[in-house]
Amino acid sequence: MTSRYLDRSFKHLLQWLIVGTRGGVNRALIINILREEPRNANQLGSLLGVDYRTVRHHLDVLEKNGLVTSMGDRYGKMYFLSSELEERFEVFEEIWNEIGKKLKRKEEGVND
Prior knowledge:
Elements: H1 3-19, H2 24-36, E1 39-40, H3 41-48, H4 52-64, E2 68-71, E3 78-81, H5 83-87, H6 89-107
Antiparallel strand pairs: 1-3, 2-3
């Protein structure tokens, strides 16, 4: 498989997880926070103002799809960005920036 094909597949995965599904904005926020430093689910929930179980759901989705990894168990489990996401972070940023533009237009009352 070529690098270009893998980049396209990765972009499609991110678009589906962030743009195409409910909760995508929370998943994107989690990715942004984890880029700063690893955190556990409680820390993420506090930072996002989101219930622990909701954060755990999003972390499970991200981990299942290879975007985050974890170490430890139970409440001390720490989450990190996967090496694949770190290597292709510009793809995430492109999608995140586009979402930001759409949200801003929506707040201003402009329809796409």
